[in-house]
Amino acid sequence: MSYTSAEMMTVAAARALGGGDICFVGIGLPSAACNLARLTHAPGLRLIYESGTIETRPDTLPLSIGDPELCQTALTTVGVPEIFRYWLQGGRITVGFLGGAQIDRYANLNTTVIGPYSRPKVRLPGSGGASEIAASCGKIFIIMRQSRRSFVERLDFLTTLGHGRSGAERRALGIATQGPVLVVTDLCTMTPEPETNEMIVASLHPGVSREQVVESTGWPVRFAPVVNETPAPAAAELEALRDLQARTARAHGSAGAE
Amino acid sequence: MSYTSAEMMTVAAARALGGGDICFVGIGLPSAACNLARLTHAPGLRLIYESGTIETRPDTLPLSIGDPELCQTALTTVGVPEIFRYWLQGGRITVGFLGGAQIDRYANLNTTVIGPYSRPKVRLPGSGGASEIAASCGKIFIIMRQSRRSFVERLDFLTTLGHGRSGAERRALGIATQGPVLVVTDLCTMTPEPETNEMIVASLHPGVSREQVVESTGWPVRFAPVVNETPAPAAAELEALRDLQARTARAHGSAGAE
Amino acid sequence: MEFLSLGEAVERFVADGDQVAMEGFTHLIPFAAGHEIIRRGRRELTLIRMTPDLLYDQMIGMGTARRLVFSWGGNPGVGSLHRFRDAVENGWPAPIEIVEHSHAAMANAYEAGAAGMPCAVFRGYRGTDLPEVNPGIRFLRCPFTGEELACVASLRPDVAIVHAQKADREGNVMVEGILGVQKEAVLAARRAIVTVEEVVDELGPRSPNAVILPGWTLSAVCLAPGGARPSYAHGYYGRDNAFYLAWDAISRERESFLEWMRRNVLEAPPGEAR
Amino acid sequence: MEFLSLGEAVERFVADGDQVAMEGFTHLIPFAAGHEIIRRGRRELTLIRMTPDLLYDQMIGMGTARRLVFSWGGNPGVGSLHRFRDAVENGWPAPIEIVEHSHAAMANAYEAGAAGMPCAVFRGYRGTDLPEVNPGIRFLRCPFTGEELACVASLRPDVAIVHAQKADREGNVMVEGILGVQKEAVLAARRAIVTVEEVVDELGPRSPNAVILPGWTLSAVCLAPGGARPSYAHGYYGRDNAFYLAWDAISRERESFLEWMRRNVLEAPPGEAR
Predict the structure, then answer these.
(1) Per-residue pLDDT at B255
(2) Residues D64 and D121 in one domain
(3) Could you tell me if D144 lies within 8 Å of chain A, comparing CB atoms?
(4) Contact D235, D205 (CB under 8 A)
(5) C68 and C178: one domain?
(6) What confidence score (pLDDT) does residue B256 get?
(7) What is the overall mean pLDDT for chain A?
């Protein structure tokens, strides 16, 4: 079965989630990956959205973080102060799933501005829940399309702490959680190098060359001693993803929804 | 109609409550007075108990602060952290109603120990909600039986701030609420003297002499320039109170309940 | 609490220069009330909202706001808020001051406001750049563990405006579904306006722990059926996701935005949301 | 989460010396679990509870506790807790250390524990003597207003034990009525045991905002019908106020207390509350 690089990315991200995980889900690509995991190999996966919906089981992907379907299929729904205090800050979440406009080699993220903060060239949405998600979840997965514009040598703004500007800030700040342990792109997967915490390429998606990854990365990207090929999406994975996306497009009244 | 001094006390306390009040109710005498007010002249009175029941309308007096009737007749019931944070500390309560084992001339209360704290002669229940009720409610009413043992020169322990040990502590501590504005006993009512905040006798219940009050007070009690006679309980007030207490006794399976 | 028309409530309780918190976390966004504020030409508002979405995009684009306090400004699942970006990037229709937080900070700041606290203490902002651009983010030490904790001033808006499912005749308002920070915003504010889908004689059978704002915590309750559209009201109508998608094109250019606002808000009857 | 008998749950999750929070604010007090702890002879416990009432009076009188953390120790509406007083005043059956707070402090400390915070900040204790006898009460200044605020360490018990109405087959527990601080106690604790009136296939139709503790926040769920008696379970059975009144005489003397405990707890079958 043929597939797109976006499908490869979503499938690779979904596979990283286990059935025992309790996952704090961001909207867009993370939401697609989390729900795909729940609908395939990890039916026990518990999804929590920052809108307060706990153990939600949507049949279509929500467009927003608080679509009706999320509440209707949830075990229960709590207020937003509670979700941030008892559930996120309280340390109940095993995996947080994030994206961003810019990422650096230590998996710090920028979703605030391109250009200077006071006179931005592009004003992005801002932190939302990300700053505290990155610190409070047991570990963080990041899913982003890879390009020189988004995988940058230096962030214009550090919205969300990965491993910090030197790679060692988490420990220095007394943050006990693991931080970003996986970056999934449309080209490859990356994991932090032991000791340095620099994100290095762990696997290349089928048909992707090292040169393509180098070309698409704004820093001199490095590769793990052994780089595997990411297993291609299985037919069952692709079917589940496409069904989900078709249901979603119908539900949102547009084929354009992701 | 004849009546007891306890009935006079409860009726006098009930009268002080207005229909627009939002009242944080302690158990026992305060609860009887608040519900009597609600069942007579102040049907619009809103009662909140620290168990989280908001706008409760019990038909009998609860024995505890969290009897089933309180929740069953409430507009809604919230958790205890919320009741203390949003409703009490949030400044939503106009009147707090308290009692105690000891009171001094500035209406400070002791509900902690008789004797030294580390080796108490009598271990009392402790603060419960009282410390923060006294600071956060718009004003405080106190209802207590009067005797030299309970109206004392010096508290063994200051559990709940009235006007402080000098009468001027509230302002010094930056507390903007009024504190105790009324003490109702089985003999008289007391209100704070302007300037000093010392509680002085404002009215004597029918048949009570100044000497009785002096005899029953552990400090050299003073009287307002004009001391009125507390109006005797009206028949309607007494009937409402007795009906309430009879219903309550039946409900609790004992005639002993107050 | 008074039952008022939405127009009268806005007239009496929202003044030029006010700090206004219109909340609703995706769900129950008070569009009808926001449109009324636009129609009445309120100016120089400090708009507070965790997720300024289409409603604040519209209000910013129509020049009601001088300052925005927020933690995530986007069209959820769609992309940018073009009017918000145009104001920040190009000062159109007027420059806007921004006070930027994380969601956790704003949720805690509303909670602290409802609780009558001057500030909120939480674990946040560690290792991020936001404290460098927002002087309202401070840190203090736990006296027991020595841990450094984030501290922000509590939010105490002049007026909070929220939408809810229903009110009874006493103005007690019941909210169900995704609750967001609406209860906190109302309890934190000096004044509060609630628009509702319907006014009923009795709230009826419900959980003993139903989320209810007693009438005495509110300034005004206004009947505004459909008042959350294109957002939604759990149990009443769904989210108009197609409109959220369509907004991207409508709002991208100033002209198409203004034309849409003229037809759908300025010249629309009061109390009606699109 | 595992479904266990109450005996097994206590055996595995409550150890000598543990900090144990058994909560329930008048409603849903976990008597059956407390009796099981007494039967199994647990010792040196730090008992935490806002309102130590009959259950803790019994546990203290039977010598399970070394320390009590509390904010109001009485028989509500009746009078003293005689066993608590005997322990504090006369050291019988053993001296007990007390750590005393106000309700607001304990409610905030549980909330902070559930929120993973090291401490709770609130407005409290001003002008009172408690800070003089409890070194765990500190004060800090709001960095924005300079106001002095109370600060107490968060409560993080080794184990929380609560009673609730029902659980589904996944161990998701639903609580209704007077909620107290049970949810906070469970989320603040390292381990949590919940006893329930019944286990059902599905929690069934409910408010979208029903108070639910997901199974994965719990260590054990134990079926214990009537497990809150003489306290009560909203929707199941009422409060035995007559017993609360009768307890005054039963507990006044050591002999009558011990005799009652022998007959009604020590020699009673496990899992059954009076």
Answers:
(1) 42
(2) no
(3) no
(4) no
(5) yes
(6) 41
(7) 95
Token code pair at residue D30: 């976990």
- Taking the Cβ of residue C172 and every Cβ of chain A, the question of whether any pair is shorter than 8 Å is answered with no
Q: Which two tokens stand for residue A219?
A: 């820093």
Give the distance from residue A45's alpha carbon to the nearest chain C alpha carbon, in angstroms.
Answer: 21
Asked if residue C246 is part of any domain, the answer here is yes
Q: Does the CB of B130 have a partner CB in chain C at under 8 Å?
A: no
Alpha helices by DSSP H, chain B = 5-15, 29-39, 68-72, 80-82, 130-136, 169-172, 210-215, 235-252
Asked if C144's CB is within 8 angstroms of D123's CB, the reply is no
Residues C20 and C78 in one domain: yes
Query: Can you tell me the mean pLDDT for B112-127?
Result: 97
Q: CATH code at D201?
A: 3.40.1080.10
- What is the total count of domains within chain C? 2
Please say which residue of C119, C137, C153 terminates a domain: C153
The per-residue pLDDT for range C181-229, each reduced to its tens digit, is 999 999 999 999 999 999 999 999 999 999 999 999 999 999 999 999 9
Closest CA to D101 of D34, D161, D48: D48
Kindly list the residues from chain A whose CB atom is less than 8 angstroms away from the CB atom of residue D119: none
Same-domain pairing of C186 and C71: yes
Q: Has the ipTM of the complex gone over 0.85?
A: yes
> Which among D90, D97, D103, D183 is the top mutation candidate for probing chain B, defined by the most B β-carbons within 10 Å of its own β-carbon?
D103
Q: Which DSSP symbol is given to D266?
A: I
Q: What is the mean pLDDT of residues D176-181?
A: 98
Alpha helix segments (H runs only) across C21-154: 31-39, 54-61, 82-90, 103-114, 130-133
3-state secondary structure (DSSP) of residue C193: strand
- Is A79 at the interface with chain C, CB within 8 A? yes
The catalytic residue positions of B are 50
- Partner-chain contact D76 B169, CB within 8 Å: no
> Cβ neighbours of residue C204 under 8 Å, at least 6 residues apart?
none
**Residue D271 included in any domain:** no
**Residues of A involved in catalysis:** 50
Interface residue of A75, A80, A83, A93 to substitute, partner D, most D CBs within 10 Å:
A75
The domain of C245 spans 2-100+157-266
Chain C contact present for A77, CB below 8 A: yes
| Of A134, A137, A64, A129, residue with least CA distance to A103 | A134
Whole-angstrom distance, CA of residue D6 vs CA of residue B42: 48
**Residue D272, domain member (yes or no):** no
CA–CA gap between residue B41 and residue B38 (Å, rounded): 7
The full set of domains in chain B, from first to last, is: 5-256 (3.40.1080.10)
A88 and C104: CB-CB below 8 Å? Answer: yes
Q: How far away is chain B from the Cα of D124, in angstroms, using its nearest Cα?
A: 6
What residues in B contact D238, CB-CB < 8 Å? 68
Nearest CB neighbour to D115, from listed A72, A74, A86? A86
Decide: pTM greater than 0.90: yes
Q: Identify all chain B residues contacting C183, using CB atoms and an 8 Å cutoff.
A: 86
- Whether residue C247 lies inside any domain: the answer is yes
- Per-residue pLDDT reduced to its tens digit, C56-104: 999 999 999 999 999 999 999 899 999 999 999 999 999 999 999 999 9
Answer with the one of D126, D153, D180 that is the final residue of a domain.
D153
- To the nearest whole Å, the CA of A89 is away from the closest chain D CA by 6
CA distance D154 to chain C (A): 9
| D10/D87 same-domain check | yes
Which residue type, as a one-letter code, is found at position A133? I
Closest residue on chain B to D145 (Cα): B174
d(CA D123, CA A29): 43
Same domain, residue pair D179 and D139: no
Query: Domain check: are C62 and C88 in the same one?
Result: yes
Q: Are residues C223 and C96 in the same domain?
A: yes
- Express each pLDDT in B72-115 by its tens digit: 999 999 999 999 999 999 999 999 999 999 999 999 999 999 99
**Partners of D20 in the β-ladder:** D47, D159
Per-residue pLDDT of D22-49, as tens digits, reads 999 999 999 999 999 999 999 999 999 9
- Side chain identity at residue D196, one-letter code: V
